[in-house]
Design brief:
By secondary structure, the protein is an alpha+beta fold. It has a single domain, classed as Methylamine Dehydrogenase, Chain H. It contains four helices and 27 strands. The chain starts with 7 loop residues before the first helix and ends with a strand. Keywords: Repeat, WD repeat.
Length: 446
Amino acid sequence: DGYSQLSAYERKRLKNITENAKFFAALKLHESAARLHQIATKRQSHATKRAKPKKAEDETVRRRSMRLQRVEPSGIPTPEMPAQPEAEEYPQVPAGPLPMIPEDQVENSKLTEELLTTWMSISEVLLVTITNVLMMLSRYQGSLNSMGLSEDNVKKVVKYRVCSMAIHPSESIIFVAAGDKSGQIGLWNVTCKSEEGAHVFIPHSYSVTCMHFSPCNPAHLLSLSTESLRCGDVTRAVFDEICRSEEDLSSFDFLEGNGSTAVVGYWHGSVAVVDRRTPGTSSELSADIGFKRTRTVHVHPVNKQYFIAAGSADVCIYDVRYLKSNGNKPVSSLKGHTKSVASAYFSPVTGNRVVTVCADDKLRHNCNTGRWLTRFRAIWDPKQEDCFVVGSMARPRQIQVFQDTGKLLHSFYNLDCLSSVCSINVVHPTKNILVGGNSSGRLHVF
C-alpha cells in the first residue's frame, strides 16, 4: 500500500500493469527471437519486391461499390478527376497473413532481425511505477521546456506522407511506428542512433490511417488501412489479418483492456464491432449511426461501453451495448461545429473532457492544411488530463500544446531541424517524449 496517495482509478491501473508484467515475464518472449531469423531466412527469396498483382482473368470477381467504380446511382459514369501530382499507383497487398519482412530484407537481414528482436525484448515486461499522473501545471510546463530536438532525432522513416503513428510504451527505448499514404509501416528504434535503425514493411495497399500498440501486449502492433485491420505480431513475425471489408475503413480503438475487441469506423459513416478471437475476417456487428462520414472513433478510458465518433459536422457519443443495425441514437451529441470535424478524443484519465479538431478554426487555430497535408488531429498528453498537442500552420513551423481552457502552454520548434508542418503527433504515455510526423515521411522526436 505504498500508493495510498493515488486515486482508486490509478491504483486499479497500477494493479493491472503489475499483473500484465508478471504475465509477460511468464511467457518468456525472448525465446521466440531465434524464430525470427528462421522465418526471415526462409522468406528471403521472396522479399526483394512486392508480389505482382495477378492478371485480371485469374482473379475472382470482387464486388465494388458504385462510388469506387465512379458511377452515379443512375448508372451514368462520373467525369474523371484531373490528375494530381501526388497520385501514384501502389502495388496491391494480398489478403490473409503476411510475413514480417521489409523491402530491404536481402541486404539487411541481420539489421532487420535486430530491430524486431529489440521490439520483442522491450515488450516482455512493462512494470510502470505511477507516482502522480496529474502534475501541477507549472511543473508540467517545466517538463515541456526541457524537451528539445536534435539532428540525430530527425529521420525519414516512410516514403510518403505520414497518416498515423504509434509509440511503444517502453521506458528504456524510444520505439516508434509510422504509417504512410501508400500502406507502408516504418519501425524506428530512435535510441540506437544508427542510420540503419529504421525499416519499412508493407502490410497494406492504401493509407494507414490508424495504429495502436496493444494495451496488454505491446509485441502486437495493430494497424488499419482502407481495406483491412491487421495485427503485426513480432513473436511470430507475421502481419495477421483481423478484419477485411469491401467498404473503406477509417479508424479503430480497443473496447477492452485486453485488446481483444475493437470498434471500427467506416468512411461512409457506419461503425462495426470486431472480435479478434473469432475466426474469419468479418465484423461481429455493423451499425448505421446516421453519419455521412466517420473519421475517428475513440473509446472512453474508464467506462469502456461508451465511444465517441467524429465525422462531417457530427460529434456523438454512443453506448456499444445498445448498438443495432439501424436506428441508433447517441447518448450525447456535442453541438457547435459548423464545418468538417477531423477528430474527437476523450481526455486520458477521467474521460470528462473531449477535444475536437474542426475546419472552423476554433481556438483561433488555423486548421486549413490543404489537400496535400494530412489533417490535424489534436491528441491528449496521456500524462496530463487537461492538456493536448496539435500541429500548427504557424511559422516558424511548430507543434503546439494547449490547456483545455484554450491557453497556449508551449510551442515546440527548432529552426535548424524542423521546417515542415507536423500534422500527426504522438506522445509517450509515461516519459517526456513527443514525435511529430510530416508529409514527406519524416519523423521529429522531441
